Amino acid sequence: MKSSQQRAFRHDAVTKVTGQAKYTDDYTFHGMLHAVPVYSGYVHAENLRLDTAEAASMPGVVRIITAGDVSGSIRFGQIEQDYCMFAEHRIHFAGDVTALVVAETRAQALAAAEKVQVDADPLPAVTDPGEALAEGAPKLRELSESNLVNHHRVRRGDARAEIERCDLVLEEEFTTQFVEHAYMEPEAAVCVPRFDGVIEVYGSMQHPYSTRRFTAALLGEPLANVEVYQPPMGGGFGGKDDTAAVVCARAALAARLLNRPVKLTYAREWSMRESYKRHPYRMRYRLGYEKSGRLRAAVVDILGDSGAYLSVTPWVNWRSTAQCCGPYSVEHVHADVRSAATNNPVGGAMRGFGAPQVNFAVEQLSDMAAEQLGMDPLEYRRLNMVKQGGETVTGQVLDTHTVSMEEVMNRTAEEIGFREKLARCSRGTAEGDELYGIGLAISYRGSSLGAEGMDFCSAVINGQFDGSILLETAIHENGQGAESVMMLILSDELGVDMKRIRYKRPSTSNIPDGGTTVATRGTIMGGGAVVSAAGQLKELLASNLADDLGCTAGDVTFHDDCIWGKNDGEHLTWDEAMQRLHFKRVYPYAFGTFQAPEVSWDEETGQGDAYFTYVYSCQAVELTVSRKSGKVTLQNIVAAHDIGRAINKAMILGQMYGGIAQGAGMALMEEFQVDRGQIRSLNLDTYKIPKAKDLPEITGIIVENPDPQSPSGAKGIGEPALELIAPAIANAVYNATGIRFRRLPITIDPEELQ
Amino acid sequence: MSDSITVNGREYLLGEEELELTLLEYLRERLELTGTKYGCGVGACGSCTVLIDGAARKSCVLPVRKAAGREVTTIEGLRQPDGTLHPVQQAFIDAGAIQCGYCTPGMVLAAVSLLRRKPSPSRDEIRKALSGNLCRCTGYQQIVDAVERVDGWMGG
Known about the structure:
The complex is a heterodimer of chains A (754) and B (156). By secondary structure, chain A is of the alpha+beta class. Chain A contains 18 helices and 29 strands. In chain B, strand 1 (4-7) and strand 2 form a beta hairpin.
C-alpha cells in the first residue's frame, strides 16, 4: 500500500506542525544566563594553560568555568571514565572543551569566549588506528598503557586450516568513513536551580538517565538532586548520548555555581566539532567456498578508529563481531575485531552501531562470490543464509522466532523485478551516457542490547476515576514516534479508545531508569513493559469487577471500550468501571516491567546466544551512473523488513525511508573530513546530507511474523532500515559500471568509465 | 522615520539594535516566535525558513533590515484565525510526514511557497522545490506524499 494511504497516529503531530512544540532552546527562564564553550585549537597537547583574565573583564561576563571549578567527578564515560568534561592538563582531540564562558547574554558570552587564551605544549598526533597500534607509537590514553581499546573474537571450528581446503577463496579489503549524525537540532541544555535544591535539566538528549548520572557525578551530588526533563528532541540517531549528556552536565554545573538558570545551546560548528561519529572501519575478509557455492570458512580482521576516547567502542565492535559474516551460517569462523585510540574525533554510537560497516563488506562479497561461482546472486544467498533452526556464526540456534530471511528477500526481489533487471545491467557498456545497474543486499540484526548490557524497562498505567488514562514508560521519544506506539499498544491491550489515553512524558524523578532508547529496543522493550502493566491492570479490574459482572475474574474480557462479563451483553463501560473502582477505594494503577530474555556470550570464543531475536531485512536499488560525470543517480528503492508485528504502519514506513536516506548518504556523499586531527567538516554547507532531490521513490514492504518472545509481538525497525542500502548501492554500481568500489563513500572518477 | 516589519499580520517598530540582528534572532528572541528553528546559521538546512511576501526565505542569513517594510509569515501565522490547520499542515499530519519535527515548520512553509507558485506540482517538482530544506528523519518520501495530497488548494 502506498504510504499516503496509511493513516498515521502521532500524539505530537499538531504541536509539531504548528510550531508550538517547545524544543530545549525554545525555553526561557527569568534571570537566565547564557554559556558558550571554549576549545583549544590543539589536536594533541599537554601542560594546558588557560588565561581567562581578559575574557573575565568583558561586558556581561559572570564567570568562566574551568576544570578547577569541578568539585565532583570531572571524568565521564559509559564504559571507561576517560573523558574530562573540562580538559584538565591534556588535549586529546580538537573537540576537547577547556572552559565555559557564562554571561548575561549569548552575544556577550560569544565575544568573551574569543578572549580566552589557551596554550599548551603540542604532542605528536596519531590519526591512523594502524599507526596507533604499531610498536613505539605514542601512548594516547591516560587510563591505559595500550592504545588498543578492545579485541573481540569469534573462534568457531578451524577457519584458518579449512580455508586452505576450499575450492575458491576471496580475499578483499574494505574501508568506511567517519559519518556525522547531522540531527537537525544541535545539542542544547537549560538548567534551572529549584527552590528545594534540585537542579532541573531540560536537554536535547536521548538518554535522560545517563544525563542525570553524568550531571550528578560532575556536581558531586546524589542522583535524586538532579531531575532531567525531556523536551521534544530534534533528532538523535544514536548521537545524543555522551556529548549531549555532557552539554547538560556543564550547564548544570554553571547553574549550580551561579544559582541562576543557564542555557547552553550549541552552534552547529560546536556540535560537529565535539560530538562523536560513526567509527571508520578497515575490514579484511578471507572467505572460502566449496564448488557447490557453500560458504565454508571466514577469516575476518577488522580495525576500527575509536578516536580520542573509548565511549561505547567495545559495544559497537561487539555487534560487528556477532554479525561479522552477515546473515549467513558459516561452519568455520576466525574473526578478530579491534579498535585503537587515536587523536581523531570520538567514535561512538550511531544508528546501525557497527553493522552498516560489516554489511558493506559482506554483501559485496556475496555478489563477488556468486559471480566467481557462476551462481545467481539470489541462489547464492538462499543457499548460505540463516534458516529456521539453523545456527549463526556465534553458535546460536534460531528456533525461538520465525526466521524469515528468505521471505523478505523473495518479497523484495519480486517487487523490484530483480532477476529480469539484473540481466539488463550495463556492466560498463551502454549506448548513451547512462549506465544502468540494480543491486541488492540482505541482513539480519540482533534486536535490543543483546549480551552488551542490562536490558530491562518499565511502564506505569495510572487510570483516572473519570475514565481517562495516563501512561508513562522509560522509553525516550527521539522523534521516531515511540510515545505514540506505546499509546497504541496500550489501547490494543486494554481494548479502550485511543481518546482516553494521554502519554505523560516522565522526568527522571518519576519512573525508574529503563535504559537508553537505542539498539532498536524502544518498541520491543517499552512495548513489553506496557503489555505487562496492562496485564496487571486487567487482573486488578477483573478481580474487583467480576461480582458486578456476575461472573468469575477469569471470564472478564476487555474490548470495545468496555469490560465484559460471561453472559451475553453483560458489561460495564470503561467510565462506569472506573466509577465503581472509586467507590471500592481501589486505584486503577499498574507498574509493569519487561526483562529481555536471557542471552549469553563467551568472550574467548565469541560463541553464545548473542541476541534474543533478530530482524530480517532486504533492500534493493536501481540506479544510473553518468559516464561523463561519474555521478550516481538513485532511481528506485524497495525494502522489506520483518518487524514482528506492525503497530503504527505509517511510522514504520517513515523509519524505513529515513534509514535508507541516511544509508544512501553514507554510500554516496557523506564523509566527515578530518585532516591530521583538525576537523574540516564543521557545518552542513560542507558536510552534505541527502536532499529530497537526491533520493528516489522508495517502496517499503512490512513483513509481519509476530515474535513470541516479544509481549507485543513487535521487534523494531530503527536500525535495520539503515544498515544495508550501502552494499546494495555498491552492488548496483558494480552492475552498472563493472567496477567494484571498496571504499565509502563511493566516488567515481569518470575516467574509469571511458 | 523609523523602520517597521509586519510579522503574521502585526506591525512592529524596529529599533537600532534590532536592525543589527538576523531575522531568525529577531523572531526567536524579540518576538518569542520559537517555531522558527536554528539548524546551521549558514543557510544550508532550511530549519529557519519563513515566508517573506509569500516566498520562502532562510531567516538565519537574512538581516532584519532587509525584511523591514515587508510581510513575514512564520509557522505560528499559518493557522486560520479560528485555529483550523492550514491544508498543508493537515496534509503533513495525514501523510505521516512528521518525525522529530524540527525541520517541519520550515518544510511546511517551503511547501506553502511552492503551492502558491504552482498549485499541482509533480513529485519531481516537489522534490526540487524542497531541496533547500534538509530533513534527517523521513527520507522525504512522506513529505512529498503530503505536498502531493494537498489537492485543489489554490493558495492564500
